Amino acid sequence: MADVTTGREGGPVDGVPPNPILISPISVVVLTFMEEINIEHCLRSVAGWAADIHVVDSGSTDRTIEIARKFAHQIHVHPYIDHSTQIQYVLTEVPLKYEWLLILDADHVVSHELKHSIDSVLETDSYSAVDLFYFPQMYEFQGQPIRSLRKWGRLLRHQNVVVEGGELVDFRFRPSGAVGYLRGQVTERNLKEYDLDFWIDKHQKFASRMAIEECLRRTGEIRWTIRPRLFGHPDERLVWLKNRWYSLPLFLRPFLFFSYRYVWRLGFLEGRTGFVFHFMQAFWFRMIVDIKLFALERRIAAGDLGVAELLKTYAHDSGARPDRGSTC
After folding, report:
1. Spatial distance between the Cα atoms of 126 and 276, rounded to a whole number of angstroms
2. pTM of this prediction?
3. Which residues does 61 contact at the CB level (< 8 Å), separation at least 6?
4. What does CATH list as the number for 19-191?
5. Per-chain mean pLDDT for the chain
6. Is residue 90 exposed (0-12), middle (13-18) or buried (19+ Cβ within 10 Å)?
7. Distance between CA atoms of 24 and 189, rounded to whole angstroms?
8. CA 177, CA 159: separation in Å to the nearest integer?
9. How far is CA 6 from each of CA 9, 71, 252, rounded to the nearest angstrom?
10. What does the pLDDT look like over 88-131, one tens digit per residue?
11. What are the sequence ranges of the domains in the chain?
């Protein structure tokens, strides 16, 4: 592990106010890897507001670090395994100054309304029992807001939450106390995804890891520690829904999911770009996962691949990098 610390000095940098008027007592961590096209938009949305900004980079060789030095108070370098382990590093190793933590990806932009909502929480004692706040995360695909896709961001009282270690692609949190909800949103706008080849390559790699995760989950090698509840908070509800998803027949469930997203969630109102996104993300991507999972299960049944080998290679203590892809 390497840890590089930098600080913003003196006067304004590219129009960003200097440190003395950074008034919100909140720590922000931005996770990066080869994000020179996205990182400035993200950091500008929190610079001048958050009093403690960190960038945790996983080995960028482009201008990501150079740009981050203009806005971040500290920059850390930590090898990437998956999002869960990267966040675990943030919670245990990054010297966060404040009890409240906002974790962002480099393609996230924080709205003014969300910042005002967070400030309101910090100014009152009414939320002393709350350890985790959810807020909407709006996804854009090639400039088109995908409103039928519901995602959530999180604000953490970081000493009172545990990162859920049962996923190889995504992540969940288990708070000690209650949860709450904030106004405003984060917009997820990845400019690299204007290149459809980039989007496809990224999701092929995600599909490999999701198939491996589901295979390990079916054999009981990895488990969620979050209680699945349909009417619980967003993480509990998603775990409940994923368990139902796993029970559906392979190759049928992509058709069902596309129909749900495009018809029931009114994705058809999002135009041609919306159709491309829903077809690719709700159908094509899910079908690739099923194809890879089917191949994995056949190899295991034939004795060509052992579950123990799969677990050793792709579990959280592995050095495999998801961005380099996984093989089945």
Report:
1. 44
2. 0.87
3. 34
4. 3.90.550.10
5. 88
6. buried
7. 25
8. 11
9. 9, 10, 51
10. 999 999 999 999 999 999 999 999 999 999 999 999 888 899 99
11. 19-191, 195-324
